[in-house]
Specification:
A hairpin with a 2-residue loop joins strand 1 and strand 2. The longest helix is centred in the C-terminal third of the chain and has 22 residues. The termini are far apart. The protein is α/β, with parallel strands linked by helices. The strands form 3 sheets. Strands 1-2-13-12-10-11 form a 6-stranded mixed sheet, sandwiched between helices. It has a 5-stranded parallel sheet with strand order 6-5-7-8-9, sandwiched between helices. It folds into 3 domains: 255 residues, Glucose-6-phosphate isomerase like protein, domain 1 (Rossmann fold), CATH 3.40.50.10490; 193 residues, Glucose-6-phosphate isomerase like protein, domain 1 (Rossmann fold, 3-Layer(aba) Sandwich), CATH 3.40.50.10490; 57 residues, no CATH class. It is an enzyme of class 5 (isomerase). InterPro entries: G6P_Isomerase (IPR001672), G6P_Isomerase_C (IPR023096), Phosphoglucose_isomerase_CS (IPR018189), SIS_dom_sf (IPR046348), SIS_PGI_1 (IPR035476), SIS_PGI_2 (IPR035482).
Length: 648
Amino acid sequence: MILGHTHCLNAVSRTVERSQNITTLPTFNHCTHLSRACNIVTVRNTIEIEAKRTVSARVARMLASMDEGSIAANMSGGSTIADTPEWKALQEHVAEIDKTHLRDLMADERRCMSLIKESEGLYVDFSRQRVTAETVKLLVNLAEAAGLREKIDGMFKGERINSTEDRAVLHVATRARRDQTIMVEGKNVVPEVWEVLDKIKSFSDKVRNGEWLGATGKPLTKVVAIGIGGSFLGPLFVHTALKTEPSASKQAAGRQLNFLANVDPIDVSRALKGLDPEETLVVVVSKTFTTAETMLNARTVRQWLKSHLGPDCVSKHMVAVSTNLKLVKEFGINPENAFGFWDWVGGRYSVCSAVGILPLSLQYGFDVMQQFLMGANNMDDHFKNMPFENNLPVLMGLTSLWNISFMGYPALAILPYCQALSKLAPHYQQVSMESNGKGVDMNGKALPFETGEVDFGEPGTNGQHSFYQLVHQGRVVPCDFIGVVRSQQSVYLKGEIVSNHDELMCNFFAQADALAYGKTPEQLRSENVPDYLIPHKAFTGNRPSLSIMVPSCTAYTVGQLLAMYEHRVAVQGFVWGINSFDQWGVELGKVLASKIRTMMNQSRTKSRVILPSDGINYSTARMINKYLEGKTQLLYPEGHDTFPVDLL
């Protein structure tokens, strides 16, 4: 059951060598490969064999001497990372941090220097976090106790770390270099990845150069990408980031990319508004080709195309990103025009697969998107190989975990001072909250601490005129400030003392310091502020933030940012001991919606009200009936296609 998973033993050996107490093995509780159903004697024998190969003789003897009860206790999920000495050390350390203020911590230049990291062209400043060198040391100790290095290695090796779905987690493979080797169950998957990428390049080149034409012989210069969740938010983030980047914008001249995600018909109307069906190509993104919202939208757009171009237009105007070739063919799309991906790519981590690269290559060309993949791959290498003390995603993940689990800050504001990054916050919101919004550990045990954070954000300076009031004088909300050295679009007006971008960045620098330092009553009195206004104008400060600067907002650096934020989330989950790669919390609402869908159809076709006896509570039944009373009566299934007049 655990043969080959020596990373567990390495982590165990570190724990043993620190504590010399073989009855407490916290690492076992975070290793998904130790099944509670596994034979205890087999585990003990396997441990003995593996230990003799991988750890010191002293540790091997101690591991082999474990009795069956000790092994069973550790496999039962009876403890969590919160039961480790490393966690408790951080809990005790909070009292020391509470005695400090960031205005004093920032006066220590040596401390600031140690917390400013420059790597891969990125500048990341952790000095405004409420941490000291000792905090960082304790956080790294916690990461080691959680087996973080082994878990990172396990992810890159294709181990099935998504235990509830029995899947590997290998979004890193979707941006691997052609010469890399990434194994899944003994097979190098990189050639398969590049087979799809080469197919994307060939197809997107044909569409862009006019070799692939629509049903009436016109070039297809407009693309509508239909997908929801990770099939939408990630690609939209990248598209928004590249719209005004000079080289990408040049490649997109004369082209248009729209996204259709929401099943609300308003979104359909907006996505299709102004488009000529003769010039429109539709990309339907659904791994199983059964996603309810996506497929209803796909059928709607298919009907829009057919009504203008005839029943045989689908093969020329619709392609798919899916693995279900049977349903793709039944839908009317030629299976040869389906672009695959794999079950080891989670939806919210799928931007670098065909999910994102196909529509984005149609807009910007494959060469631009290859730069994006190279940037993400660069950050993957950094994450995999860099020591924790200088590892950007690891430090971001650990400081966020410190803020959430120890400092009690439940939210994070993503604040890019770059309009091109305006869709980073919604994308990260899904990556973070869907990944780490969990209440149990890998073994299904209820956690004694909160995981995840409430993520939100807006570009600066828009956010300053929206929610910064709360951030400065209300709740403490840690912030990520993201700035760019060279703007995509430079403007300088004669007579102005700074350029437009300099004005933006002045705010970037000022806001982080305002949160850290605040403003004291003494400072206000020195400015002759009336006493009655002092409580209203005082700023407590001591509010943590992170500052990131990228040299420019290009396809490459957007790829770096995407991967860095993805890995930050993984670090949190690995240390908390949760599964960051499933999302069972989204299922219940879908099931209930399906039940209501059936009731609504019956109400329409049989002209009757919905009753609590239909298996629904009184409140919901009354609300549905109120909704139906106000609708134009459409009889299903005898009705006919009805579209907004400006579409059909």
